Amino acid sequence: MPEFLELMPPQEALAVWLRAMPEPRVGVERIPSAQALGRVTAEAVRSPEALPGFARSTVDGYAVQARSTHGASDTLPAYLELVGEVPMGAAPGFAVGLGQAAVIHTGGMLPQGADSVVMLELTQTARAGEIEIFKAVAAGENVLKAGEDVGIGEEVLGRGVRLDAAAIGGLMALGLTEVAAARKPLAAVLSSGDEVVPPDRAVRPGQVRDVNSYALAALVESCGGEARLYGIVPDRAEALRAALRRALDEADFVVITAGSSASARDLTAAVIRESGAPGVLVHGVNVRPGKPTILGVCDGKPVVGLPGNPVSALVIARLFVRPLVARLLGAVPGKPQAAVPARLSLNLASQAGREDWVPVRLRREAQGWAAEPIFYKSNLIFSLAHADGLVCIPPDATGLEVGAAVEVVLL
Fold first, then answer.
1. Is residue 161 a contact partner of residue 40, using CB atoms and an 8 Å limit?
2. What is the C-alpha separation between 360 and 345, in angstroms, rounded?
3. CA-closest candidate to residue 188, choices 302, 299, 264
4. Are 316 and 293 in contact (CB under 8 A)?
5. For the segment 176-205, what is each residue's pLDDT rounded down to a tens digit?
6. Beta strands at 389-393 and 100-104: parallel, antiparallel or unpaired
7. For 54-113, how does the pLDDT look when each residue is reduced to its tens digit (9 = 90+)?
8. Which residues are within 8 A (CB) of 20 and not within 5 positions of it... i.e. 6 or more apart?
9. What is the CA angle 298-300-303, rounded to 5?
């Protein structure tokens, strides 16, 4: 059997893979909103109340009727009678009429009759019980109206939204201390290779510690999934077949890192092919690093076979595992991945027709960020650990010249 069936562009390979999967059935669990950072909503969230629930001041100053200030200026101030001070955390027990003002603090509730607030800096005390105002205000100025942020019954968060700090704050503002979140999809992570040993074991000549299982599990969890390690599988068909069968039975998707040899990768493809329909969909992606990637679906369960070299495995996992987890969570396309513009500090060569991803360090310069390529071998994990991000060389280029404007996708 040849090592590669056909090299596909990464985006085409991802599309082929995702189309072969059934629509995900997203599990739902109610969790405390305070612990929901990074989780994805399983249903739309509607507001049970208006926010804010009352008209409130956005500044320290004086609550007034706007028409009481018309014409006020530095040379011709308006003089208003002071009728009280708005208590914080309570409704004022008085009203503000024409020609009157009340002391109010940021967040305070507007008294009845008031429709605007004059900033403290635009006033001064004239005499006891009276203030001078040096600038007119318009109705609604420096005021948050009741329901201006959210109305009763309004959808504040859609289904499939990844919750960030602001969203959690919004839930708390509405008294929603629990939220329906998508259950985290479970990834079974298998590492294969006769040369691979657990990290806590001393290595003998020819052996390497298992880097990929732990790095890939961390990546899965960073993008919203849950990972379970299924151990190190020897390069034998019956052992890999049994491990994959168990993983498919217990997990939502499977990540396998194959041994470094071509025969090990072919073994992985053969076992995936026979473990369920439709089997292997992609065997070989036109990308560096990570050409020997395998994408498959076994009776509805996604399976990805990653290269054994740690850098290749992580780069490919970012291209394929991250969007897979998002799909299984029911996440809608949201904020773009964080990236910064930079200029290359060195020439980068590439092969036309192939997409290359190159790790870079970022260095601040007077004109902006400089991207310094890290020249690496794909089995050296710290070449990626020391990188700030990745630069993509598109397939229609034969490289990028020093000084070229690039976008650095942050790691």
1. yes
2. 10
3. 302
4. yes
5. 999 999 999 999 999 998 888 898 999 899
6. unpaired
7. 999 999 999 999 999 999 999 999 999 999 999 999 999 999 999 999 999 999 999 999
8. 278, 281, 297
9. 50
Q: Are 261 and 323 contained in the same domain?
A: yes
- Residue 191 and residue 115 share a domain: no
| Nearest to 258, CA basis, from 194, 170, 199, 173 | 194
Burial 170-187 (b: 16+ CB within 10 A, else e): bbeebebeebbbbbbbbb
Is residue 209 in a domain?
yes
| Rounded CA separation 112/91 (Å) | 10
- Supply 8's token pair: 């596909």
Q: List the structure tokens of 155.
A: 């959808």
Domain encompassing residue 128:
56-144
- pTM confidence score: 0.84
Do 125 and 137 belong together in one domain? Answer: yes
Give one DSSP letter per residue of 193-212, joined into a string: -TTEE-TTSPPPTT-EE--H
- Does 111 lie in the same domain as 33? no
- Whether the CB-CB separation of 61 and 209 falls below 8 Å is answered with no
